[in-house]
Design a protein that fits this description.
With about 475 residues, this protein is an alpha+beta fold. The chain has 15 helices and 23 strands. The strands form 7 sheets. A 7-stranded mixed sheet has the order 3-9-10-16-13-12-11, sandwiched between helices. Glycyl-adenosine-5'-phosphate (GAP) binds next to strand 10, strand 13, strand 16 and helix 11.
Length: about 475
């Protein structure tokens, strides 16, 4: 029997949200391509994020830095020395595993926080934690595996040309701190926001798009005066949570999780994650047709207090002064940083899961409906002529509406089938042009969630939709 996750992955493929990467060549493990509806959904989510955190604020500017950066960046940031996972190989089946994850899955994240490579190996051996693939308990020693992808630039391979694909977008912001302060009228407290790709050679990617090696982040580095961190940290926790809730994620599917002291990243002294209840778990009950969907909390966003770690490190490694002079008091200091770091792909996945609904209708038929918040729905309005004979006036309405909204015109199949298709795409409104339309200059607008149908005069249609799509 299919789990909820199986059904969502199947819907994503069937309806053009997310396809397996390089599929015609047999795929490339854990890579995914956003299809026509997936890219619209993801773009809408990124736009909603940019609108809330850049456009509607007075204390934020944007940036789009290069993925390839001077390799010194990653020495300064600490990634060369400490951005690694404990890698172990199963001696029997050769499966590669993350030692910390094996312990975390059995005993929780606290059991592994701050443990050395040696201690991780010992815990696994002592508790006979088995290989997830072959169930043997015979692993190689845990060794440190750096997660950064290395490549080389230029035509000559060799020393001096090695570069990394950035493992986080954050460092592009820190190295541009001075540029932004010198060129834009920003005053502390202010933030720099960026959306872009990041790459990590994850040992155990998986759970659909939850953990991949190429992914997108939506990050903010918010620069503050030292001493104001508690206040700003709390503000950012609240604003982050509100962003998810305002776009329709149920409150009971979200929680904060504070990092334990020895779980904190090398740059942070205070971190909270916002986690979402993902239906990733699977437990076989009585027989193979009875599968229980287990929910597991997974990180969507990390909010970290990074102190002045990054600016100080880059100042030290680059020899440039990365300070701020308060124009009122003339006080000079290195700003501290609160970093809200969202995963774009995980956020898309959470919105897909949150939107997924199976409903039994009054006539005992069932429907699958993706109840996206209208602001993120890939298609806002679908336009259907009731019959092919009405395609001319229907196309005219479509051509008018598509100037304002992402629309789709569909004249094939029964109206019922067209509704079902758009329910699965999550289109909030379907507009039907019928044989009365010409006479009464009105159309039928059907609401995705209530399935209620309203007659709306053509002259008012764009405004009616605009109002209801907020
Ligand atoms: N600059 C801080 C930073 O990168 P992080 O907790 O490592 O912090 C931030 O990453 C967010 O990026 C995570 O909350 C998660 O949503 C997303 N993320 C991290 N690794 C990922 C991966 N392998 N696949 C998909 N998303 C990932």
């Amino acid at each position: 029997m299919e789990t909820v996750m199986d059904k969502i992955v199947a819907l994503c493929k069937r309806r053009g949200f997310i396809f397996p990467g390089s599929e015609i060549y047999g795929g490339l493990a854990n890579t995914w391509d956003y299809g026509p509806y997936g890219v619209l959904l993801k773009n809408n989510i990124k736009l909603a994020w940019w609108k809330a955190f850049v456009q509607e604020r007075d204390d934020m500017v944007g940036l789009d830095a290069a993925i390839l950066m001077n390799p010194k960046t990653w020495e300064a940031s600490g990634h060369v020395a400490s951005f690694s996972d404990p890698l172990m190989d199963c001696k029997k089946c050769k499966e590669r595993v993350r030692g910390d994850k094996l312990i975390e899955e059995k005993f929780g994240v606290e059991a592994v926080a701050g443990k050395s490579l040696k201690e991780i190996g010992e815990i696994i051996e002592k508790n006979k934690i088995p290989c997830p693939k072959c169930k043997a308990c015979d692993f190689t020693e845990a060794r440190s595996f750096n997660l950064m992808f290395k490549t080389h630039q230029g035509v000559v391979e060799g020393e001096g040309s090695d570069v990394y694909l950035r493992p986080e977008t954050a460092q592009g912001i820190f190295v541009n701190f001075k540029n932004v302060v010198d060129t834009c009228r920003v005053r502390v407290p202010f933030g720099i926001a960026q959306i872009g790709k990041a790459f990590r050679n994850e040992i155990t990617p998986g759970n659909f798009t939850f953990r991949t090696r190429e992914f997108e982040q939506m990050e903010i580095e918010f620069f503050i005066k030292p001493g104001t961190e508690k206040e700003w940290f709390e503000k950012w926790c609240i604003e982050s949570m509100n962003w998810f809730v305002n776009l329709g994620i149920s409150k009971d599917k979200l929680r904060f999780r504070e990092h334990q002291k020895d779980e904190l990243s090398h740059y942070s002294t205070m971190t909270k994650d916002i986690e979402f209840k993902f239906p990733f778990g699977k437990a076989q009950k009585k027989d193979k047709f009875d599968v229980e969907n287990l929910e597991t909390w997974g990180e969507l966003e990390g909010i970290a207090y990074r102190g002045c770690f990054d600016l100080s490190q880059h100042a030290k490694f680059s020899g440039q002064k990365l300070e701020y002079r308060d124009p009122q008091t003339n006080e000079v200091y290195v700003p501290h940083v609160i970093e809200p770091s969202f995963g774009a792909d995980r956020t898309v996945l959470a919105f897909l899961i949150n939107a997924y609904n199976e409903e039994i209708l009054e006539n005992n038929e069932s429907r699958i409906v993706m109840k996206f918040h209208p602001r993120i729905a890939p298609i806002k309005v679908a336009i259907f002529p009731l019959s092919n004979k009405l395609s001319e006036p229907a196309r005219k309405i479509y051509n008018d509406l598509k100037k304002y909204f992402m629309c789709e015109y569909d004249e094939s199949g029964s109206i019922g089938k067209r509704y079902r298709r758009h329910d699965e795409i999550g289109t909030p409104y379907c507009v039907t042009i019928d044989f009365e339309t010409e006479a009464d200059q009105s159309v039928t607008v059907r609401d995705r969630d209530s399935m209620q149908q309203d007659r709306v005069p053509l002259a008012q249609l764009p405004d009616w939709l605009l109002q209801n799509l907020q």
